[in-house]
C-alpha cells in the first residue's frame, strides 16, 4: 500500500511531530509512505529517514486554490492508494478536492476541537472517506455537528516515551539555565502563545498561588502572537521576577522532567501534545476540563482539572499540588503509567493503518 501524507505545518511540533512518529512506525515491507510539505518546513528533514520520498511544494494556506493543481500533479506522479491529510492551513480543503478529482480515497486527521458551522461540516466532510479524530472529545464535536458515526474514528495521538521519561538528569543545569535557586518550586507551561491556550488565565491565578508559595517560578515555553502582550501583562502585574517567558525550546525532553507541575489552562484543546510529554515524564498536571484534555489528565489520578476560565479554581489546584511532594509524586507515577498504556506510538500507527486498509478496500 502506498500512502501520500500531506502536512502543511512549518514547525516541528504538534501535528507535524505526530506525522514523523507515524512515518517512522509505519515502515514495513510492502508499504510505501510519501510526504508532501511546504518548502523549508522543519518536517522535511525530520521525515526523510522514514519516508520513501519527501516533496517540498508551495503551500500558501487557506486562500491558495493553486494547491489543488499542485497536489493533483503530485498524486498523478506518485499514484498513491490513499491520501492522508494531516492539517488545515488549506491542505484539508484543497487536498480533499485534489484527491477526489484524481479518484483516490482520502483520509483527514482532525486535531482541533473548535466547532465549525453545521452546513460547512455537511459540505466539506463529503470529501473524506474517513476522518481520524485524535481524541474522543474531537469526535464528539464532529458527531454533534452532524457527521455520521461510521465516518469518524478516534485514534489518539502518541508520545515518544523513550525520549520523554522521568528523571531530571541534570538539576544543576536546570537551575542555572532558568535561574532557579535550590529549594524553589517550578511550574511550567508549554503551549503556543495564542488566546485559547490560557496564558492570561494563568497570570490571573498566580498572585494567590505566590501568596502561599512565594518562591515559585513559572516558566512559559512556546512562541506565537500573544507572546509580547503576555510579557506586558507580566510586567504590569509586577510578576517579572517570578514568571519567565523562555520562548520555543527544542530540548523539552530535558526540561520537563525537572518541573514540579505543568499548567495547561487551555479553553479549547484537541488533545495536547505537551500534556502527553509531561505525563510521560511523570510530571503532575493542572489543566482545564476542555476538549480532549480529560483523556490525558484524569482528575484525581495524574492531575487536577478545573473549569475553563475559572482562575480561582486554577489557583487552588496549583497550590494544592505545590503543597504536597507526595501527591505530586503519586500523580506523576500514574501519568507515566497512563501514557504507556494508552498513548504509545505503536497503537497510534496501528489505528491509522487500519483506517487506510478500510478505505482502500471500500474504494
Automatic annotation (TrEMBL):
Span of domain Glycosyl transferase family: 174-336
Key words, A-Z: Glycosyltransferase, Transferase
UniProt entry tagged with the keyword Transferase: yes
Membrane-traversing stretches: none
Residue span, Glycosyltransferase subfamily 4-like N-terminal domain: 15-163
GO molecular function: glycosyltransferase activity
InterPro entries: Glyco_trans_1, Glyco_trans_4-like_N
Gene3D superfamilies from the UniProt entry: Glycogen Phosphorylase B
Keyword Signal annotated: no
SUPFAM superfamilies assigned: UDP-Glycosyltransferase/glycogen phosphorylase (SSF53756)
Protein name (record): Glycosyl transferase
Organism, as annotated: Caldimonas brevitalea
Taxonomy of the source species: Bacteria, Pseudomonadati, Pseudomonadota, Betaproteobacteria, Burkholderiales
Amino acid at each position: 500500500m502506498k500512502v501520500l501524507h500531506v502536512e502543511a505545518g512549518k514547525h516541528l511540533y504538534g501535528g507535524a511531530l505526530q506525522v514523523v512518529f507515524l512515518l517512522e512506525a509505519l515502515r514495513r515491507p510492502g508499504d510505501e509512505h510519501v510526504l508532501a510539505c511546504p518548502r523549508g518546513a522543519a518536517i522535511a528533514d525530520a521525515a526523510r529517514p522514514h519516508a520513501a520520498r519527501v516533496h517540498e511544494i508551495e503551500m500558501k494556506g487557506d486562500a491558495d486554490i493553486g494547491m489543488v493543481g499542485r497536489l493533483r500533479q503530485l498524486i498523478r506522479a506518485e499514484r498513491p492508494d490513499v491520501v492522508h491529510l494531516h492539517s488545515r492551513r488549506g491542505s484539508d480543503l484543497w487536498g480533499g478536492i485534489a484527491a477526489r478529482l484524481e479518484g483516490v480515497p482520502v483520509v483527514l486527521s482532525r486535531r482541533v476541537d473548535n466547532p465549525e458551522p453545521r452546513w460547512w461540516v455537511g459540505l466539506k466532510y463529503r470529501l473524506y472517506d474517513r476522518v481520524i479524530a485524535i481524541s474522543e472529545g474531537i469526535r464528539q464535536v464532529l458527531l454533534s455537528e452532524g457527521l455520521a458515526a461510521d465516518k469518524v474514528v478516534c485514534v489518539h495521538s502518541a508520545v515518544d516515551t523513550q525520549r520523554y521519561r522521568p528523571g531530571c538528569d541534570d538539576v544543576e543545569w536546570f537551575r542555572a539555565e532558568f535561574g532557579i535557586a535550590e529549594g524553589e518550586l517550578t511550574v511550567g507551561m508549554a503551549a503556543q502563545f495564542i488566546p485559547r491556550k490560557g496564558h492570561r488565565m494563568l497570570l490571573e491565578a498566580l498572585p494567590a498561588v505566590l501568596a502561599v508559595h512565594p518562591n515559585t517560578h513559572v516558566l512559559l515555553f512556546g512562541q506565537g502572537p500573544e507572546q509580547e502582550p503576555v510579557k506586558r501583562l507580566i510586567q504590569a502585574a509586577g510578576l517579572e521576577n517570578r514568571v519567565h517567558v523562555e520562548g520555543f525550546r527544542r530540548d523539552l525532553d530535558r526540561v520537563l522532567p525537572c518541573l514540579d507541575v505543568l499548567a495547561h489552562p487551555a479553553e479549547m484543546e484537541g488533545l495536547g501534545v505537551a500534556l502527553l510529554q509531561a505525563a510521560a515524564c511523570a510530571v503532575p498536571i493542572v489543566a482545564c476540563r476542555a476538549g480532549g484534555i480529560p483523556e490525558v489528565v484524569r482528575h484525581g489520578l495524574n492531575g487536577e482539572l478545573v473549569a475553563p476560565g475559572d482562575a480561582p479554581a486554577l489557583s487552588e489546584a496549583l497550590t494544592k499540588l505545590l503543597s504536597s511532594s507526595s501527591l505530586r509524586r503519586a500523580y506523576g507515577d500514574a501519568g507515566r503509567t497512563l501514557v504507556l498504556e494508552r498513548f504509545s506510538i505503536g497503537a497510534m500507527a496501528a489505528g491509522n493503518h487500519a483506517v487506510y486498509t478500510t478505505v482502500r478496500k471500500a474504494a
